[in-house]
């Protein structure tokens, strides 16, 4: 099992629009082979900063989702709402 941490900062005044697009992206990930679980968090001191922590059966499963046409299409809608490019960190238990 691996964990994927995605960090995003929403551009100013786009929080509501972002929420719907990000929710749809996570919903689609839930339906992907190898996806185990996922949760989204908001930074306490910066409500525009979001973290999604998802669990996958393997790096291969994550890579298949990351490189899928479905994710690319959804990210093309989500990316303009971000202040910066998303940052992705792949983690494993020590």
How would you describe this structure to a colleague?
- It is a single chain.
- The chain has 94 residues and is of the alpha+beta class.
- Helix content is 36%, strand content 35%.
- It is built from three helices and four strands.
- It has helices spanning 15-30, 59-66, 69-78, and strands at 2-9, 35-43, 46-56, 87-91.
- A four-stranded antiparallel β-sheet has the order 2-3-1-4.
- A hairpin with a 2-residue loop joins strand 2 (35-43) and strand 3 (46-56).
- Helix 1 packs antiparallel against helix 3 (69-78).
- The longest helix has 16 residues, at 15-30.
- The chain is globular.
- The protein starts with a strand and ends with a strand.
Gist?
This protein is an alpha+beta fold and 94 residues long.
